[in-house]
Amino acid sequence: MSDKMHSKHSVFVLGQNGQPLTPTTPSKARKLLAGGVAKKVWSKFNTFGIQMLVSTRTETPDATLGNDWGTKFDGYAAVVGKENPLNVMLLLPDKKVIVRKLEERRTLRRARRHRNCRRRAARFDNRKRGGFLAPSQQVIVQSREKVIKEMCRIFPINHAAVEDVRFNHAKHRWGANFSTVEIGKTRLRKLYADRNIKQFDYRGWETEELRKKYGYKKTSSKSAEKFTAHCADALTLAVDVSVGQHVEVGPFLVVDDTYRPKRRRLHDTQPAKGGIRARYSEGTVLGLRKGLLIGTAKGKVGQLCGELKGSYRFLDSGRKRQAIKVLGWISSNFITRKEKRKPRLLPIAKARGSRRGKIRWEEASHERAIPSTS
Fold first, then answer.
1. DSSP-derived secondary structure letter, 235
2. Around Cβ 257, how many Cβ atoms within 10 Å?
3. List of residues 6+ apart from 143 with CB closer than 8 A
4. DSSP annotation of 299
5. Residue 87 is part of which domain span?
6. CA distances from 90 to 165, 235, 249, 335, 337 (A)
7. pTM of the entire structure?
8. What CATH number did the domain enclosing 206 receive?
9. Per-residue confidence band for 175, with pLDDT thresholds at 50, 70 and 90
10. Assign residue 317 a region: left if phi > 0, alpha if psi is -120 to 50, beta otherwise?
11. Can you list the alpha helix ranges (DSSP code H) found in the chain?
């Protein structure tokens, strides 16, 4: 019998009260939907699940969430029982962009204090510093919290395996980027403690040894949107806490949380002719929050980013700005995409008249359909 365990239970299940239960198989989910004892639900990762409409057993197996935190990319892997139902690679917000926006805001506020106009009073010296996080760091910690909370919402997580990053900043001066990972660790520990999740810490060298032990490969390219970039370490830690043997890799998703809209910038920085500063933007667009997923009547999908002469402006899949008058739908889900894999080529029947041994090829699609019922 092989030591590999395939992830067949890929559909998450919520109880009647919304509590996460043991994931199920697509075929079992279809039967429950057809029987009228469950309804369709989707996670913020755009993954399919069901919620029970009748009371059921609440016993769940041990479930572990592996965390591999980085400066620009994070890896998360869930192991429920002896299967890996989901792996997530998180693209973190760009800290340099946040710092640039903060510096620009500070400069404008200081300039307004010397002009006879409405301004915000200086309040930098009357704030409590307990538990303070710089805004450039806080936006990264909040991004991590969103993903962790959603993973805990759809899976019955009761353990967390974390690669604990430590750096001697007093001895070495070249580890400035490590502070992005180190800052906010206390806040994330509290997040797990509040949910009664036991946390296990690992050092970097331990993760490497365990990855070799359980047979997971890791690529040297950290920016590659594939499982082997960051989720390999996350799954390694989750496996070591839970089953202690190799688990077959489950579904993989990329969550893009890099976009951060400009909020509360009411006017352009430079005045136009006549000394009038044109109105710029707010945190909402015609009553809708910036950053929402939107769909158009023509089937286009994008991310809401602004307003243009009474129309909605959005970023399309190529990150180009477009405008539309009417929206088809809106969603607060994450921006997700699957791993880009090379198409598998399968041989087909030999063409008539071709040379002996010559084979034509065609691309074969292996996309998994979402479970549905009529």
1. H
2. 20
3. 90, 92, 93, 257
4. S
5. 11-94+135-256
6. 18, 14, 17, 10, 11
7. 0.81
8. 3.30.420.40
9. low
10. alpha
11. 26-34, 95-112, 135-154, 178-182, 185-194, 204-214, 227-241
